[in-house]
C-alpha cells in the first residue's frame, strides 16, 4: 500500500505554491507559480531516482526504469496548473499519486518489467490559454505544435513566450514519446461518488464538450438620455443568451450541462449602455448527437436574439472535444484494483474534460476518480479526504502493476 | 456673434488629447490626459487675459473681470473629463463655448458690469470615481469634501491622490466661491432636437437618477461536472436581473430609463460557473414618485431572483439625485436669446445628469442644449455640427450678457 501521509503532505506542500487567502490555489499555466510547482515536483522525482524528459511544450515525463528495456512505459499523471481561483487537488492529485506509486515501489524494492512514468501535461485548465488540455492534445496529434505555441493569453503573451520565460521549453519533439498505457487519477469534481458513498469511480469515458466565443455588437450610448426604444444594448442581448444557454441544457436534461463562464462587458461604465459584450459558452453532453442538437439550438437563439435586439455578432466554435470511450483493458485494471482492495466503486462517465481524453487516441487509457466534498471543484474550497486520496493511489498502484508486469 | 471657426478648432485641438482610434476621446477624470486638457484650456484662458482660481477639488474658475467689483460673477461652463470610450463634445463643448464668449467680448471690446466666469467641474462623468458630478456636488454642499477626496477608483487610488498626482489640488475652499448665476451649454446626448429639427434646447430641468450597486454571491464550480440542478450561478442571476431592469423601465414608459452599464464577472474562467457578479443599475425618471416605484420593483426583483437562484446578495444605493427644476430667470434668458437670434428651439427636460443639477442649489441656474448626431453620446462616434455649436455659443453669449448687464 502507498504511504497516505506522504501523499497528503506533498499535496499540502504543493498547495503552498500559489496559495490563496481562501484556502485555494492559483497556479495558472506557465506563470512563475507553475514554474515553482514544476521545480518542486522534479526535485522530488530526482530524489526518487527518476529520469526526467521534457518536450517542446513543457510536458514532463518522469521515468522509473523497468527491467525490460524493449517495453513501452506504462504511464500515469495529470496536470499541475490550476484555475485562477482553483483548489488544491484538481490535477495535482493525479501527478502526486503517480509519484507516490513510484516511491512505494522504491520503498518495497519492487521492480517492474515495463518502465513506469508520471506525465505532467501543460495547460490543462485552459484558464490562461484556450483550449484546455492543449499540450496533451498536441501529444496526441489533435493540434499542431505551432498552433499551441501561438495561443495567446488576454495580455497577448503567447504560450511559447510564457514557456521560454519559465524555462520549461524542452528539447523532445511533441508526441515522439510513446506510452504503452496511460491512467489518470483525479478528484471527481462532481457529486456522484459522495452521493453514493463510494470511494472509487472507474471512469469508462468522458462526455463531449464544445466551447463557443460570441461577440455581441450594439451601440454605446448614454444611459440617461437615450430612450428605451431604439437602444442596442449588448448586455441585454447577452443576458437573454445566458438564460437561453441554461434553457438549452434543461431541454437536454438530465445529461446536458451548459454554462457561460466568461464575460467581458465594454465600455463597462455605469452610465453608458454597453456597446460590446464578449462571452464564452461551454456545452457538454455524453453523446455526439446531443452536442449537435444543443449547438443547433444555440445558433438559433443567437440569431433570434441578435435580430430582436438589433445586435451584430461574431460567433465561432473554439473547441470541440468529442465524447471519449476508454480502453477496456485499462478500465478493467482499475476496476479489478478497486475490487481487490475492497473499495466501494462504480463505473461512471466523466463530466469534466481531462488530458486522458486526448491520450486515449494514442495509448490505451482510463481514469479513476476519488470523491471531493460536495462535488465542488474550480473553487478555492475544493476538498478531499486523505483516506480517499490514499485509496485512489492504492488502486492506481494495483492497476499500474497489473499493466506493467505481464 | 461668436467665432464659429475658432470654437470648432479649439474643440478639435482639445480632442487630440486622449483621442482614440475610432475618433473618440478618452480623457478620464484626473488622469494625465485630464491634466493635459486642463493645461491647454488654462493656457488659452491666460492668453485671453483671464484670472484663474482652483479649489481643493480641482474645480477651475476662470474670470473675466466686470466693471462693478461688488457683483457676483455670472458663470457658465461644464467639464473636461470624458467617458473611457467617450466623444469629443460631451462637457468640452460647454467649457469652450464659455471661453468663446469671453474671446468674443474681448474681440469686440465689450465690458460687462458683472464679472464673467467659466467653470470646469472635476469628475463629472463618474466613470473613474463614483458618483458622477462629484465636485460640483461638493461645491453645492451635497457631499462633504472628505467624502469626495476619499472616493476610490478600481485600482484603489483615491480621488485626492489622483488630484495631487496631476497637480490640480488648489487652495481655495470648496463652495466658498459664490456664483451670481450659472448657465451650462451641452450637447443634448439624446434624439429630441434632431428629431424635431430644432437647434436650441431650453432646458427647464433634469430628471432624477438613482444608481445601485449589486453583488450576487453564488458558488464557483466546474462547468462540466456540476449538474444543472443545484448550481448557484451568479451570472445567471445577473442575467435575470439585467432583463428585470429593462422590464421595470418598460413598465414606467415612456419617461423612464433603466440600464445595467457595469458588470464584473468572477472568476471569469471559461470552465468555471461564476460565483460572484458585481453590477451597477442606473434608473432615471423625471418625477420622484417614478423613482420610488422603480426602486421598489427593483428591490423585489433582486429578492425574488436571488431566492430562486440560491444566491446571496449585497445591495446598496450609491447615488440619488432628485429631479431638478431650473431657475425661471435663467431659463428665460436662454429662451429669449434663442428667440432673438432666430434659432428654432424648444423647452425640454434633460435625460442626462449635469453639474448644473447641483449648482442649481446654490445659484440661479439653467442649461441650453444643441443637437448631436443620432442623439448619440458616451460613444466615440459622438458628433455635432459646427453651425449648431456656434448657435449654442451665440445663445449663451446673449443670455450671459443679459444676466451680467443690468
Ligand atoms: N478536469 C478539469 O478541470 N478539466 C478542465 C477542462 C474542462 O473544462 O473540462
Ligand atoms: N452629461 C453626462 O454625461 N453626465 C454624466 C452623468 C450622468 O450619468 O448623467
Automatic annotation (TrEMBL), chains A, B:
Keywords: Hydrolase. One of its GO terms (molecular function) is hydrolase activity. This is Zn-dependent hydrolase. Pfam families: M20_dimer, Peptidase_M20. PANTHER family: ALLANTOATE AMIDOHYDROLASE, ALLANTOATE DEIMINASE-RELATED. InterPro entries: Amidase_Cbmase, Bact_exopeptidase_dim_dom, Peptidase_M20, Peptidase_M20_dimer. Residues 205-307 form the Peptidase M20 dimerisation domain. The lineage of its organism: Bacteria, Pseudomonadati, Pseudomonadota, Gammaproteobacteria, Oceanospirillales. It comes from the Bacteria. Belongs to the peptidase M20 family.
Amino acid at each position: 500500500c502507498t504511504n497516505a501521509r506522504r501523499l497528503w503532505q506533498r499535496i499540502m506542500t504543493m498547495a503552498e505554491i500559489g496559495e490563496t487567502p481562501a484556502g485555494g490555489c492559483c497556479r495558472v499555466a506557465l506563470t512563475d507559480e507553475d514554474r515553482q510547482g514544476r521545480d518542486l515536483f522534479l526535485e522530488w522525482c530526482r530524489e526518487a531516482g527518476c529520469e526526467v524528459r521534457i518536450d517542446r511544450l513543457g510536458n514532463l515525463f518522469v521515468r522509473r526504469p523497468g527491467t525490460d528495456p524493449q517495453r513501452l512505459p506504462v504511464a500515469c499523471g495529470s496536470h499541475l496548473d490550476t484555475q485562477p481561483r482553483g483548489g488544491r487537488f484538481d490535477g495535482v492529485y493525479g501527478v502526486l499519486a503517480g509519484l507516490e506509486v513510484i516511491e512505494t515501489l522504491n520503498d518495497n524494492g519492487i521492480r517492474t518489467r515495463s518502465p513506469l512514468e508520471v506525465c505532467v501535461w501543460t495547460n490543462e485548465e485552459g484558464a490562461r490559454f484556450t483550449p484546455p488540455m492543449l499540450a496533451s492534445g498536441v501529444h496526441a496529434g489533435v493540434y499542431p505544435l505551432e498552433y499551441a505555441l501561438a495561443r495567446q493569453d488576454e495580455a497577448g503573451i503567447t504560450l511559447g513566450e510564457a514557456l521560454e520565460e519559465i524555462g520549461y521549453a524542452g528539447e523532445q519533439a511533441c508526441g515522439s514519446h510513446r506510452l504503452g498505457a496511460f491512467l489518470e487519477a483525479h478528484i471527481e469534481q462532481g457529486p456522484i461518488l459522495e452521493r453514493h458513498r463510494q470511494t472509487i469511480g472507474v471512469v469508462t469515458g468522458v462526455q463531449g464538450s464544445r466551447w463557443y466565443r460570441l461577440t455581441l455588437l450594439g451601440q454605446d450610448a448614454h444611459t440617461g438620455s437615450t430612450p428605451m426604444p431604439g437602444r442596442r444594448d449588448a448586455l441585454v442581448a447577452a443576458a437573454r443568451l445566458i438564460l437561453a444557454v441554461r434553457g438549452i441544457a434543461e431541454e437536454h436534461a438530465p445529461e446536458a450541462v451548459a454554462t457561460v463562464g466568461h464575460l467581458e462587458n465594454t465600455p463597462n461604465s455605469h452610465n453608458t449602455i454597453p456597446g460590446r459584450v464578449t462571452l464564452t459558452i461551454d456545452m457538454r453532453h455524453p453523446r455526439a448527437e446531443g452536442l449537435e442538437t444543443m449547438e443547433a439550438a444555440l445558433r438559433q437563439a443567437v440569431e433570434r436574439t441578435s435580430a430582436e435586439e438589433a445586435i451584430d455578432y461574431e460567433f465561432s466554435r473554439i473547441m470541440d472535444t468529442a465524447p471519449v470511450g476508454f480502453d477496456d483493458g485499462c478500465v478493467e485494471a482499475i476496476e479489478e484494483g478497486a475490487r481487490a482492495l475492497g473499495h466501494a466503486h462504480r463505473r461512471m462517465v466523466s463530466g469534466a474534460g481531462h488530458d486522458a481524453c486526448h491520450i486515449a487516441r494514442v495509448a490505451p487509457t482510463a481514469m479513476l476518480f476519488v470523491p471531493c466534498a460536495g462535488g465542488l471543484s474550480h473553487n478555492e474550497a475544493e476538498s478531499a479526504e486523505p483516506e480517499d486520496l490514499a485509496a485512489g493511489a492504492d488502486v492506481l498502484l494495483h492497476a499500474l502493476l497489473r499493466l506493467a508486469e505481464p
